[in-house]
Design goal:
The chain has helices at about 15-20, 35-45, 55-60, 75-85, 100-115, 125-135, 165-180, 285-300, 310-325, and strands at about 1-5, 25-30, 50, 65-70, 90-95, 115-120, 145-155, 185-190, 200-205, 215-220, 220-235, 235-240, 250-260, 270-275, 330-334. The chain has about 325 residues and is an alpha/beta fold. Bound molecules: nicotinamide-adenine-dinucleotide.
């Protein structure tokens, strides 16, 4: 049984608390938020639970073995560092930190203290992403052509980051997890509309050295909510609509056959149009699976696949995308 403290009870914190609560092996003993109104809500949701407004009080509690950090991105580094220094395992929201340097420091600190960092890349625990990884690992789509994700809506504006740091962590973490190659460079274009100096629309590309390319449209200003990913290969093509109530993933037995037996000027292109099938996917709540995996990793002293290194990879791409955007789309090598 491990005692867990949760810092941040805003929009996402209650989900993290609900999912850790009731897991065999976990006991939430304290919730911290600097906002008194949020603490009142925490008390209403978990009567009798200890609350505090100073994260250092929670981190300083020797009974607490692990801390979940569910506060804005700009606070992740300081809180995670303090928790690791006090010997706590850390479950930290995406993205791990605001810079590569900070992420490297946390990884180093965790390693030296023999502690686990898990980054909450929630989508990796969804049935959809688990299925996509299974299909790509098995080479079902053949050689990959492109990956294209649209993640747009009239979004919750984050105060401390632009849309890249808010939404692209999902795409970068999913792509890193399912595509068996590493990108070599990133480009991004984007703009902002309210004088905050924080872009609200971004178009990002991740470049690979084998012709494969990934593109992400992240946007807080779309009238409709879209969460759709296309992954295309020379054998099959896949569409993942995360908002669909069923058949979230559709696999199309479609492709392009190119023959060139009489020289370049007589390239023969034919399209193959076969059946579509929608595999069954698990609908267990992703955050529940992830919370349980965190406890398992602690108990077995095992490095999670969504550890600090995985979080660092995402932060490296975010930093490159942000830099490219500021330089009008310049290609930034990773
Ligand atoms: N994994 C996901 O799918 C997912 C979804 C949404 C948000 N998030 C992440 O969760 C984090 C929080 O996002 P949110 O939307 O809940 O933000 P939010 O602003 O709604 O909530 C943050 C809460 O943290 C509190 N807080 C801020 N600084 C604090 C500090 N130093 N000490 C104590 N409390 C503090 C605030 O008072 C607020 O209640 C972000 O990192 C975000 O990227 C992840």
């Amino acid at each position: 049984m491990i005692d867990i403290g949760i810092i941040g009870f805003g929009y996402w914190g209650p989900n993290v608390a609900r999912n850790f609560n009731g897991l065999p092996g976990a006991n939430i003993t304290c919730i911290c938020d600097r906002d008194a109104k949020r603490l009142k809500m925490a008390t209403a949701a978990f009567p009798g639970l200890k609350t505090c407004s100073d994260p250092m009080e929670l981190i300083g509690d020797d009974g607490i073995g692990a801390v979940a950090i569910v506060t804005p991105v700009s606070t992740h580094f300081d809180l995670a560092k303090a928790a690791l220094e006090r010997g706590k395992h850390v479950f930290v929201e995406k993205p791990l930190t605001s810079s590569v340097r900070q992420a490297e420091d946390l990884i180093d600190l965790a390693r030296r203290n023999g502690l686990i960092i898990m980054v909450d890349h929630t989508f990796l625990f969804t049935g959809a992403v688990q299925k996509i990884k299974e299909l790509l690992d098995a080479g079902e789509l053949g050689d990959l052509f492109f990956y294209d994700s649209v993640r747009v809506n009239l979004g919750l504006y984050q105060h401390d980051v632009n849309v890249i740091w808010d939404l692209a962590p999902h795409d970068f973490s999913i792509m890193s997890h399912v595509v068996p190659k590493e990108p070599v460079a990133v480009t991004a274009l984007g703009t902002e509309h309210f004088g905050r100096g924080k872009e609200d629309v971004a178009f990002i590309a991740a470049h690979f050295d084998n012709g494969f390319i990934a593109h992400f449209h992240c946007n807080w200003l779309s009238p409709v909510k879209v969460r759709r990913t296309l992954i295309s290969g020379n054998r099959k093509m896949l569409v993942w609509d995360d908002l669909a109530s069923d058949e979230k993933i559709k696999i199309y037995d479609r492709g392009v056959d190119v023959r060139n037996d009489r020289g370049i000027h007589e390239l023969l292109v034919s399209y193959r149009s076969g059946d579509m099938h929608a595999p069954r996917i698990s609908n267990v709540e992703a955050l529940r699976t992830e919370a349980s995996y965190f406890l398992d990793c602690i108990e077995k002293n095992q490095t999670p696949f969504n550890d600090g290194e995985a979080g660092l990879k995402v932060v490296r791409m975010l930093e490159a995308a942000d830099r490219s955007l500021k330089l009008d789309g310049k290609k930034i090598r990773l």
